[in-house]
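debug: dumping io for the single-chain case to check the tokenizer round-trip. Nothing else runs in this session.
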Amino acid sequence: MKKSVKITIVGLVLNAVLFGIKLTGGILSGSLSLLSDSFNSLTDIIASIAIFVAVRISTASADADHPFGHHRAEPIAGLIVAIFAAILGFEVLRNAFENIFYTRKLEINWYIFTIIAASIVVKGFLTFLFRREANRSKSPALLASSIDHRNDILVSSSVLIGSILVRLGYPLFDSGVAFFIGSFIVYSGFRIGVENVDYLMGKTPEPEIIDRLKTLALSVEGVLALNDVKAHYLGNFIQTEIHIEVDQDSTTQLSHGIAEKVKKRLESEQIVDFAFIHVDPVHVDPVHTGPREH
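debug: decoded output
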């Protein structure tokens, strides 16, 4: 089982544990805020299941129905997380708006405080775990999940900050904090959605990635120049199409061998899923002694 799949299982289990603790604590203490937060954890479980399924599917090998793999599964899960993030953010904004007219009475005793503090610690761990693996595996689903965990930290922190502000006699400041956090969560959900739509729509990779592909192709002996370089995301991986120029006097076998070397060198990059190499025979300028790029 791949590491990314194992991490999604850890996230699912911890979210389920948090849901159980918050729900039990809310029922025993009668805290509506804790009960509400438990239902937020329930949505986290749903999102975690979507992430787990997507990551599991994306790691499956190519088959007859999906000859280029199943990488688009991850951005789909990222969109689901984006939707949940937007819902959470708007809920925070709604509560903040209502609190302007009807001040909340937050009863944060040591029991509730302990549960919320534990939730912040667990979510902090999950944020770190998912972000680290997302950066390593270039996984949009895990990155979206790490942002969702961070948003949960903000929500739980706003409950604690709000209770302190209300006790100090500043209920409007509590609403101000909630407005800021709610707006930030909505924005982060929007950004998650846009990024994952780009993955699904085949967005061109960042310029530094294109430059890296060009450098790798030109480093192969026999490649005189690059006629055209195209690349697009297929899920969280890249497919690229490169036209290489080779000596027109080279044999077909030699030209094919050069193209195969370029293909292997490009696909050795973790982010490259498949490389299409086209050979363009050109006349060699006797003065020219090294690779060039149009």
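debug: round-trip ok. The domain at 3-201 is CATH 1.20.1510.10 (Alpha-lytic protease prodomain-like).
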